[in-house]
Each structure stands twice: as C-alpha cells, then as structure tokens.
Amino acid sequence: MKVFLNPGHKVGLDSGAVNPTNGKTEAETVLKIGGLVADYLATAGIDCELLQSNSLAGEDEDRNNPSICRTANESGADIFVSLHCNAANGRAQGTETLVYSEGGSATGLAKAIQKRIVEGLDMVDRGIKARPDLAVLRNTTMPAVLVELAFIDNQDDVILLTENQDDFARAIARGITDYQLMM
Ligand SMILES: [Zn+2]
C-alpha cells in the first residue's frame, strides 16, 4: 500500500489557523506531525509520499507550489490523508475526520483514524463528516480523508498539538494500518 500524506496549508505562504495566545500555526504543526506519520509508516513497511503545498486544486501551480490533487493522483497512492487543525470560537475542541461522502472505503479509513486518535489522546469525538466542497476530497481519485486533529485555538487542544505530536502521529499511522488490515 502507498499513502499520500498532505499536511495542510504551507509554511511561509499560508499559516492556516493560528492560536491567538501563543502564535502556534496550523501549517507548522501538521507538517511536523505529518513527518512523524511518514516515519511510522516507513517503519511499518508502508510506502509514503508527503507534500505540503499552498495549491489545493492546481491554482497558481509552479515548481515550488505543485498541485496537491494532481500530484496525489499521479503518485500511484492507494489512499490520501490530509492533516489539518480546526479553529472556531476558542471553546470548541476535539477531533473530526472529513470525507467527500459517507459510506465506502474513505469512511472506513476515516473511522479507523478517528478511533485511534480519540482513544489514544482521549479527545472529544466529533465524528465523521461529509464535506463534498473540499477540493482535496473532491478532486482526488483514491479514498481520501481530511483529519482535523484538534482545535489549535483552544487552550487545552493546543497543548496536545504541541506536546503530543508523536502520539497524534502514532495514532494516525495505526489507523492507516488498521484500515490496511480491513482491506
Ligand atoms: Zn486547515
């Protein structure tokens, strides 16, 4: 199995959500966790390609900013996993995993990852949600999920996103290997 990992946003170009108190950025957090996921997958013998790019659907594509969806579709990957942090009103917290539509293999993958994160880090379980509007879910040709790891603007969640990056990464990698066993 080959996994395409997409830490959301782009360090230096698009910070994504930012914690208003400590300045922690989504782009840096998910890039760090994505790198750790890649390490765990490699250890498990799973092929992995990682791309963080500001270009979601191919707009303004150039050498430094390649299209995520096109690159993923041409990579030969069997599954696509995008990593993001949520943000809302400072009070909302927890983990949710987004799919293009419910049912099918993407939902199986989403449930496996969601379960490992919620159990592994004792997160509030916000469940699986259909988001057909998201380019990385709509324009990818393999089962695709977008994991909203936690709320970066929540003071409890941001501590986990900072101090438990390895736990998030291990949970995501385990969710992926759980899914592999279901296939
Ligand atoms: Zn994001």
Summarize the model shown.
This protein is α/β, with parallel strands linked by helices and 183 residues long. Helices cover 39% and strands 20% of the residues. The longest helix is centred in the first third of the chain and has 18 residues, at 26-43.
Task: Give an overview of the whole structure.
With 183 residues, the chain is of the alpha/beta class. It has one domain: Zn-dependent exopeptidases (Aminopeptidase). It has six helices and six strands. The protein has a six-stranded mixed β-sheet with strand order 2-1-3-6-4-5, with helices on one face. α3 links the parallel β4 and β5. The relative contact order is 0.21. The chain binds zinc ion (ZN). The site of zinc ion has 5 residues, from loops.
Task: Please tag this protein with its features.
183 residues; alpha/beta; Aminopeptidase; 20% strand; binds zinc ion
Summarize the SSE layout with pairings.
Elements: E1 2-7, H1 26-43, E2 47-50, H2 68-73, E3 79-86, E4 95-99, H3 105-121, E5 125-130, H4 135-138, E6 144-151, H5 155-163, H6 165-182
Zinc ion (ZN) binds at residues 8-9, 16, 26, 84.
